[in-house]
Amino acid sequence: MSDLNTPAPEPDVPPLHTIPDTQRVPPPRRPAPPRPTPLRTVEDLPDGVVIALGVVFIGCIIAALITGVPELSAWARNHDWSWATQWAATVTDAVHAYLDTHTAGLPITATTVFVIWQAVGAATLIGAWIIEGFGPRLTWLAYGTATVFMVWDASPAAGRTVAAGLAVIAWTILSTFAMRGFSLRPVVNVFHRS
Question: Of 51, 33, 34, which Cα lies nearest the Cα of 42?
Fold first, then answer.
């Protein structure tokens, strides 16, 4: 019975040595399971799925046209659109009045400057939307700032803040097109030396 209670002798354990970091070998990496190839184009889908999606898409378009077009035209006919023309007149009439006041004595007429103002606005908006360059966007910002200033200056004192606010709102709505693709995220370029 005494043999059961005595512990077994421990085997000789060599002393622990510290291995320098330069000699350590990391354990081997297990390869990751292969990933399925993602679907990238329509050609990757089976033909039946493409046909089914096309039929559903065309059906949705037809249903939207059958029900939506009559409803939209009835709504547009019965809706009062004077708010849009009044909003545009609030901005354009103030700009025209500002140009009438401040072109006195110049060899160019206020009507010509007003046409130039409209042309520059349209060209800059379209150019900034298509080109997405710094120059057209900077011109668009200057154009909007000048427009808001002209509306502020030429509007009656009682409605000056409202007129300038309407000009800012119209300008920012159009800026969603002019500033398309603009990002405040910094671009980091990394150059490697060979």
Answer: 51
Sorted by sequence, the CB contacts under 8 Å of residue 175 that are 6+ apart come out as 140, 144
**Amino acid at the residue 11:** P
Cβ 50 vs Cβ 42: under 8 Å = yes
pLDDT tens digit string along 72-116? 777 777 777 788 888 889 999 999 999 999 998 899 999 999 999
- What are the residue ranges spanned by the domains of the chain? 45-78, 82-178
CA-wise closest residue to 126 among 174, 74, 182: 174
Alpha helices in the chain (DSSP H): 2-5, 47-78, 82-102, 110-131, 134-154, 160-178
The DSSP line for 79-91 is S--HHHHHHHHHH
Q: Dig out the tokens for 192 from the structure.
A: 């490697």
- In whole angstroms, what is the distance from residue 85 CA to residue 87 CA? 5
Enter the pTM of the model.
Answer: 0.55
Contact indicator for 76, 68 with CB cutoff of 8 Å: no
